[in-house]
Design brief:
The chain has ten helices and seven strands. It is α/β, with parallel strands linked by helices and 275 residues long. The longest helix is centred in the N-terminal third of the chain and has 21 residues. The termini are far apart.
Length: 275
Amino acid sequence: MIGVAMATYYSDPKVSRAEREEREADLRGKIEQIRVAMPRTGYRYLVEELKRSGIEVGERRVRGILKKFNLQVRPRKRFIATTNSNHKFDIYPNHIAGMTLNGINQVWASDITYIRIENGFVYLAVILDLYSRKVVGWAISKRIDGQLALDALKMAIERRKPPPGVIHHSDRGVQYLCDAYVEHLKENGFHISCSRKGNPYDNAFVESFMKTLKDDEVYLWNYKTILDVIDSLPRFIEEVYNKKRLHSALGYLPPEEFEISLGKETVSRPMLEIY
């Protein structure tokens, strides 16, 4: 192995068939170890995870292993409406379109999704810091109401203790524009921003998180009760997504590690442009 690139080690055509199969099994085993925590990780992220553990192997090789052993991720699509924008409350303009972010606690984005259980649905409200993609607040409930959203906001404020002037961005749902929620935002010095009507791209970063949550966690387990959800989702959010899930926009770092890196003088802060 000394002086030999890992990519060559795994694909050298000069080795015997038996040795090549042994190397493939070794690489497959390392991929499956990564998939224990993140079962639906795609090939690009697998390559970066392998690099972080000292294994330099190319995308082509990883894709070949995934195909050979039938380990490709299969997309799953489901949809339940969680936004009710037919209400009497004030709607605020979109303040984040065209922004360029260079630090945390500049824009927080919120959304709600559903989790299917045996007798209905459970709802999850989350708040992300858009710069680091970190989930800073969340709440779970069987009711999709303002209190669900407010509980997530209160958690985020308690954890981050943000300075005045943070922009809070959401869709036009009643949960985010009801009196109690808006009052709490104003009391804590937030600027309020809403997505444009019928434009799903205005909250694309949170939508991306929700897709990751569904693909890597929700769709893999047969939740039966709200207690199953409460037992599993916080672990995924805090221990897997925030601490382990790599983001290409963050230089292939997980959100928590990325935020820690911002405090180091040798690390330059990337810019995030919002379209």
